[in-house]
Automatic annotation (TrEMBL):
InterPro entries per UniProt: Flavin_trans-like, Flavoprotein
GO annotation, biological process: coenzyme A biosynthetic process
Entry GO MF terms: FMN binding; phosphopantothenoylcysteine decarboxylase activity
A Pfam family annotated for this UniProt entry: Flavoprotein
Gene Ontology CC: phosphopantothenoylcysteine decarboxylase complex
SUPFAM superfamilies in alphabetical order: Homo-oligomeric flavin-containing Cys decarboxylases, HFCD
Identification of the protein by name: Flavoprotein domain-containing protein
Flavoprotein domain mapped to chain residues: 27-177
Signal peptide start and end residues: none
């Protein structure tokens, strides 16, 4: 997996997304998991990042995500660590929101709840994930996952528009079969199914001239 910086000023007015050179390997991926029901399927997405890109992965989980899915379980699917709080220091990542985002070539927030989208779109940094998304210098990709009523709210649409304006990337939610709620129906407003995750991620990066 390679980033390209050939397209000047492509996506991130506020981000120095490419660290120099024409192409950059994505070796380090920081995954943010927020409190959407899609979190329960995250292991397949984490596995895809490792098997397809050979990426090294650290994870940040919000409190809501950790109430849906045990951080211990997530830990089995990554070579890195799971971070829950801003004060979860390790020797390598003493100040997690700074050191994790410096380490990362790419940050992917999947699933992205309405809440995390609203917070980052409005400059609110009140937990580790929102703070990291704001501190990141690398590209940050949001994969919204919510029901269609939430998705279609004007506030939600405004927030997603604002994120794009601010240089964040969004994998536009669609009608997906992979994530089904209790209705058993296809879900409008869902993140890509895991088999589509890497292709959609690459397509999103390519669309911004960040991937060749
Ligand atoms: C079982 C359950 C499923 C949920 N699924 C979603 C969801 O798919 N999308 C969403 O935006 N919020 C969902 N929520 C609501 C969020 O968890 C809630 O807004 C929370 O504050 C999000 O916090 P976070 O963004 O810090 O993770 C769900 C809540 C519960 C209890």
């Amino acid at each position: 997996m390679h980033f390209s910086n050939e397209k000047p000023g492509c996506c991130h007015p506020g981000f120095s997304s490419i660290h120099g050179g024409d192409f950059m390997d994505i070796k380090n991926v920081l995954v943010g998991i927020s409190g959407s029901i899609g979190a329960v399927e995250i292991q397949n997405y984490l596995a895809a990042l490792r098997s397809t890109w050979g990426a090294s992965v650290h994870v940040i989980m919000t409190e809501s995500a950790a109430s849906m899915l045990q951080s211990k379980t997530v830990n089995y699917f990554i070579d890195g660590n799971v971070f829950l709080k801003s004060t979860d220091s390790t020797d390598q990542f003493k100040i997690p929101h700074i050191h994790l985002t410096t380490w990362a070539d790419l940050m992917v927030i999947i699933p992205a709840s309405a809440n995390i989208i609203g917070k980052v779109a409005n400059g609110i940094a009140d937990d580790l994930l929102s703070t990291a998304a704001m501190a990141a210098k690398c590209p940050v990709v949001f994969c919204p996952n919510m029901n269609e009523h939430m998705l279609n709210r004007p506030a939600m649409q405004r927030n997603m528009h604002q994120l794009k304006e601010d240089g964040y990337l969004i994998i536009d939610p669609g009608e997906e079969e992979a994530i089904q709620l209790s209705t058993g129906q296809k879900v409008q407003g869902a993140m890509p199914g895991f088999s589509q995750f890497i292709p959609r991620l690459e397509e999103t990066l390519r669309g911004q001239g960040l991937y060749v």
